[in-house]
Amino acid sequence: MAKRNKSWGLNQPLAHPDHHKPITRRELIAQGFRFGLGTVAGVSGLNMLASNPAYGALAPDLEDYLAGCGLGNNGERKIPFICIDLAGGANISGSNVLVGGPGGQMDFLSTAGYSKLGLPGDRIPMVGQNIDTQLGLAFHSDSAFLNGILERATTAVGNINGAVIPARSDNDTGNNPHNPMYGIARAGASGGLADLIGSRSSVSGGNSMAPAMLINPETPPTKIDRPSDVVGLVDTGDLNAILGKEQAVSVMESVQRISAAKFAQVNTGLTNHAEVSDSINCQYVKSADLADKGEIELVDPDDRAASDPLDRIIVNDAGGIFSEAEFDSEREFRKTASVMKMVIDGFAGAGTITMGGYDYHTGDRETGERRDLRAGRCMGACLEYAARKNTPLMLYVFSDGSVFSNGMVDDSQDGGGKGVWTGDNSSTAASFILVYNPGSPPQIFGVGDDMFRHQQIGWMRDDASVETGNGYAPANNVNGLVDTVLLNYLALHGEAGQFQSMFGNGLGSNLDRYTAFQTLSSVSNGFIT
Description:
Elements: H1 25-30, H2 60-66, E1 81-86, H3 111-116, E2 131-135, E3 137-140, H4 144-152, E4 160-166, H5 181-186, E5 194-198, E6 222-223, H6 227-233, H7 239-243, H8 245-263, H9 273-293, H10 324-329, H11 331-344, E7 348-355, H12 366-388, E8 393-399, E9 403-404, E10 409-410, E11 418-419, E12 423-424, E13 430-436, H13 450-455, H14 478-492, H15 499-503, E14 523-524, E15 527-528
Parallel strand pairs: 1-7, 1-8, 5-6, 5-7
Antiparallel strand pairs: 2-3, 4-13, 8-13, 9-12, 10-11, 14-15
Helix pairs in contact: 4-12, 8-9, 11-12
């Protein structure tokens, strides 16, 4: 039994004696020296946390542009997508999400294998013990991720299912092309204000990179990591204050008409003249649309008790997802609330939430447990907000690398008698997906026992190392991991057959073996209903 006298605080940077000093942005994030910036929310900062306003309609001649400019889409919308990027190499498999052999999650590993995943002999999963399937996907019953999710996602539980993907990725680096958001946008996800958002100012919007072949410079993620960033997206300057909303919208509409009329008289000589014309027109239509959306009436944070709780389902001491005190004191909650509000309410198509400090092989267990619990609370918040808004959600969780235990046990209160995290180990890595569907849980692809092999795509050897010789593309190829996520996003829409035309043949011809989900019941003709 090992009991350390020192553990690291929840936001304390991790300085490892066997690591060089962090010098790059990614290294600083991974070891927790740098987090998402956040401030205590003031009046404007909490503006994004009200219920959706009732927007006025644009003039009929501009309404015709909305669908073509990707703004109105005639009410058609893809499933909101959020990925959580745990920078540094967090534990996912075993102690959080169960990963088994070729037969699926319940094809149990050896006792030595579970020990490497931080589970001593009295904690290993077996039939009827140490297993929790409340989320459809099987978690260890004492998973910190699970405990955090269940604490927040009280309404969503029962309508969630998921899949786990054992897959190696390099440790302590942001160079793993984990982030699938550009592919999600290519699959049709879009938002009223931005197609992609992320909590980091990076090409991917997160800590890990996006696959180079998916990057579209026309749709870079907009940085969102606090409530004031959201309000800034609908800032029309002083126009609303000077003229009032209706007059401001009228001015922007008139500017669009003048521009369109002038441009119609111009011959650019370009072969793509029509595309250039449409692009310019869309920019002015978007400005008018932003002016229309720009007035978001909100709760005065100094008079929160006087507000209608239904307008404050995210931050509210009376049944909110976050209490006012924890929201004001915890930057990761403010970051999560900002991104999930934008994506689930349709202002963005997909978003990345990066959390730093997950390089937690500190020779104890409690440091990682506390950080995993907070991450679980953020996952649960996203699922719960989707449930309260009656909107489906695909949540994808990944990390760059993973950790292992040498079998020593941390018997401190937060360590809970589990194995200490000793060092990095990319062979124990995995990623997982959770999907919320209003009204009924998502259904797993396949029939009978075959479903178990679709809920876990790939497997681990008995010693808890990812099996890389099984022919599954994600096992040792992060690009294959992203392709698998994109295929399943399409599958939720009933569009798996479009995968190869959109993303190529990286998964080969047998796509069924990578498909975890059936079409959601809340989707019709490729769009959520």
